[in-house]
Amino acid sequence: MAWNNWARKAAATLGSVALVTTLAACGGSGAGGGAGAGSGESTAPEDIQVGVAMPTETSERWIADGDAVKSQLEEAGYSVDLQFANDDIPTQQQQIDQMITKGADILVVASIDGTALSNQLQAAADQDIPIISYDRLINGTENVDFYVTFDNYNVGVQQATSLLTGLGLLDADGNKTDKKGPLNIELFAGSLDDNNAHFFWKGAIDTLQPYLDDKTLVVKSGQTKIEQAATLRWSQEEAQSRMEDLLTAHYAGGKTQLDGVLSPFDGISRGVITALSNAGYGKDIKAGLPVVSGQDAEIASVKLIDDGVQYSTIFKDTRKLASQAVDAVKAYAGGGEPTANDTESYNNGVKAVPSFLLESDIVIADNIQKLLVDSGYYTADEVKSGQSK
């Protein structure tokens, strides 16, 4: 790691050759050194400005992420410039350019398109600004220093596992049941420009493949490739439109029953459920709504789960992810490097980015209280109303 720009300022102010030598030595410290590793010198938090770039405010999940990162950084004493880009790549590029111009010392970036920030990240690297990739891996550049995220392959496994459980093919303990197929399912994926979408998909398909191979599960549309199942920008509207098309083409009139839908995000799930409801599922079609998975534990979907409409979601506690991002900021501010628990899995096409992976949980109706209410993530009133305060 090159000298941090605040460290260079401190060295210049002190005019100490010994200090310069000490700070330069931090460039050789490995992952796992922790805050302050390798230098013995740190800058007061109030003297450090952190730019936080989030992709959108159209998803309550990203609002929660932004608020959690900002509040935890400010609580630790850092100055924070938080920006949301409304899913517009040029806007995010401009926002990061402005953060650099305004003197950001560290950047925390949740990208819209993981390949679209090369110029901005090069400008940051030229000024020795550490870049922490937040939840979505930034691809195609060496100028990303650390990655904080959840175990996204396992998230996909959990999505598929919850679908199998909801369909009755697995019991609550994950053991195979005696239920036989064939059961009809359709597959949805996230946005192809989001690296996480590919991890979710692989984890899910690896889990479902044995059931697809032996025809216990059947995808009537034949759309089993991620390119066919992808949902640009994770759009609820696009998911609804695609589900409507699938129903018209393969399940018209309810003559062929759709039993389940793999969905990688709660917004997509709600779009799918709207299309299903409009087509008569849960009303005129005797079998009711298909089993629909999800992700992010958005409050509107948590209510749907509580009401028995959506089957499941994956809870990724944004408070924990924010805390890990703050720990990474503290490490760089102390002249060291953050602790990584994975240095191989997340290759961005140029290098394997040191990462810290967090665990996630499957939420169904029976554990909403334990996972979401008792933990303080939502209140019981918020679950009941489907709106967060």
Automatic annotation (TrEMBL):
NCBIfam families, sorted: ChvE
Taxonomy, superkingdom: Bacteria
Protein name: Sugar ABC transporter substrate-binding protein
GO CC annotations, alphabetized: outer membrane-bounded periplasmic space
PANTHER family reported in the protein's UniProt record: D-XYLOSE-BINDING PERIPLASMIC PROTEIN
SUPFAM superfamilies: Periplasmic binding protein-like I (SSF53822)
Domain Periplasmic binding protein per the UniProt entry, residue ranges: 50-336
Signal as UniProt keyword: yes
Compartments it resides in: Cell envelope
Gene3D superfamilies: 3.40.50.2300
Signal peptide interval: 1-31
Listed InterPro entries: Bact_Solute-Bind_Prot2 (IPR050555), ChvE-like (IPR049784), Peripla_BP_I (IPR028082), SBP_2_dom (IPR025997)
Coiled-coil intervals, chain numbering: none
Keyword Signal applies: yes
MF annotations from Gene Ontology: carbohydrate binding
Keyword terms: Signal
Pfam families: Peripla_BP_4 (PF13407)
